[in-house]
Amino acid sequence: MYVGIDVGTSMVKAAAFDASGREIAVESRPVALDIRDGFVEQDMDEVYAAVVDVLAALTSGTAGPAGPAGVELAGLTGQGDGVWLVDAQGRPVRPAISWMDGRAHELLDEWMASGVFASVFRRTGSAMFPGCPGPVLGWLDRHEPKVLDGAATALYCKDMVFQRLTGVRATDVSDASMPFLDPRTRTYDDESLALLGLTHRRGLLAPVSDPVAVGETRGPGLPPGTRIANGPYDLPACALGAGVTRPGDGLLIIGTCLASLVATDTLDLEAGEPAGLYISTDRQGQWLRAMPAMVGTAALDWVLRTTGVRHAEVDALLDQAPPGANGVQVLPYFAPSGERAPFVEPRLRAELTGVSLETTKGDLVRATCEGIAFAARHCLEAAGLTGDLAVCGGGTRSPAWMRLFADVLGRPLRVVEGEVGARGAVLAAAERYGVELDAASWTRPTAVIEPDAGRAEFYTVAYAKHLAHLAEARRRGRGRGGG
Question: Does the keyword Cell inner membrane apply (predicted)?
Fold first, then answer.
């Protein structure tokens, strides 16, 4: 039995697989987000307890849902970005600051105006946003310096869990990619730290293990002595779990955030608008050009809550409303910290236009789903997609939305269902330990959805209108003193 652990933003999951990649069982537990006035935090002890709980439920001897098989090895992945401050024993010194947090937007505004933002991108290939470690550590250095003084490490989510499980203090090249890693040398870039005014906090950065760190579990959850590997974080783990490794091929993750990733063997830090990031992978000379947008299923969830529509009704409503949603348009930028890909606008906010007394719930739902799909197309184009496209995440549970995505993107979708991030974490662990697994079998798609030619043509025109609407919204935001 092989176990993958995925420590998500709102849900912690552990999945068991057999040697062929068949998903045997999954255990999950929700974890809370404390959201107030643009601050988004999480209780690290609650997150770790959820990890222990799902692992114990999954592997508790013959009574566990995975059956009597022993654990060959485990792989760990989880949400990226944010800051998870711990002491020398890996215990929290304050609540974790989530990647969704917006408190550092004014500091990011300063860096964008001064040129620091662009300079760091050209050195690291990482476009900062309010919830990434650079701005968050900068904010803490200004407002909570004593907390930083009392911390031993500023970790990422999965690194906190790994240290608690094994006692090993480490991160990997994928998590370190945002925003301090030089993707050419695969080490921390001291000049970027100096530009951000964080040289004196360099000691808080965890050692970068290249390849990923390994250890043996010593605490509850998994049997003591279980071999476990730390990383990569959830975006590159999903790419591995979906079989996206060939340059030009891409992955769209339709989750809380909308992540677009394209595999590449070319590193160009000078071209294009500073946005997204280059994620270093365990393979030298290979990266993922990533456009992890803040927009995602959270935007649709807000519209459903506001309109009183249940998730089970979404497919029927999408089928009832025509393409174009009877003139309703949605710019789906609902996150408190604005948007981070394929552009950075910390103050950008959502807009609903074309609404009248004749507008139906179906129009609002379809317009929102279309807006999210347009954002995906924008990100994938910016990331350089030229090959096949895989898709995974919670949004794939809606067949009607998947058809809409195929039409908007104008290309077939290789749907990969199940716990794709946990699957990728196991594949990364197997490679690190030299355990041979059939990657093609583990990453086989469950369906392929073809676009409708007529609707794809319609959406090509609608997408151009979306871009024009977005450009105007960005101009208005800057006029109000935005990023």
Answer: no
Distance CA 290, CA 299 (A): 20
Give how far Cα 388 sits from Cα of 240, 251, 261, 457, Å: 14, 9, 12, 20
| CA gyration radius, the chain | 21
- Distances in Å between the alpha carbon of 416 and those of 55, 390, 423? 24, 7, 11
Handedness of CA 175, 277, 10, 319 (dihedral sign): negative
Task: Let me know the angle formed at the C-alpha of 339 by 241 and 115, rounded to the nearest 5 degrees.
Answer: 110
The secondary structure element, H or E, covering residue 471 is helix 453-479
Separation between Cα atoms, residue 12 and residue 5, nearest integer Å: 8
Domains and CATH numbers, the chain: 2-236 (3.30.420.40)
Q: In 150-167, which positions are buried (b, 16+ CB within 10 angstroms) versus exposed (e)?
A: ebbbbbbbbbbbbbbbbe
pTM of the model: 0.89
Cβ atoms < 10 Å from Cβ of 118:
14
Q: How far apart are CA 142 and CA 136, in angstroms?
A: 10
Instruction: Give the position of tokens 């662990």.
Output: 429
Sign of CA dihedral 128, 131, 136, 137: negative
DSSP 235: H
What is the greatest pairwise CA distance in the chain?
Answer: 63
pLDDT, tens digit (0-9, with 9 covering 90-100), for 317-365: 999 999 999 999 999 999 877 888 898 887 899 999 999 999 999 999 9
Query: Each residue of 24-82: pLDDT tens digit?
Result: 999 999 999 999 988 999 999 999 999 999 999 998 854 455 555 689 999 999 999 99
Return the minimum-mean-pLDDT range out of 42-56, 151-165, 246-260, 365-379: 246-260
Amino acid at 346: P
Q: Select from 23, 31, 79 the least CA-distant residue to 53.
A: 31
CA 423 to the chain's CA centroid: 15
What's the CA gap between 215 and 18, in Å, rounded?
A: 22
- Which secondary-structure segment (H or E) carries 105? helix 105-114
**How many C-alpha atoms does 240 have within 13 Å on its Cβ side?**
32
Cross-strand partners of 279: 288
Q: Is 140 in contact with 149 (CB distance < 8 Å)? A: no
Q: Which single residue is written with the structure tokens 């959201």?
A: 35
Contacts of 22 (CB under 8 A, 6+ apart): none
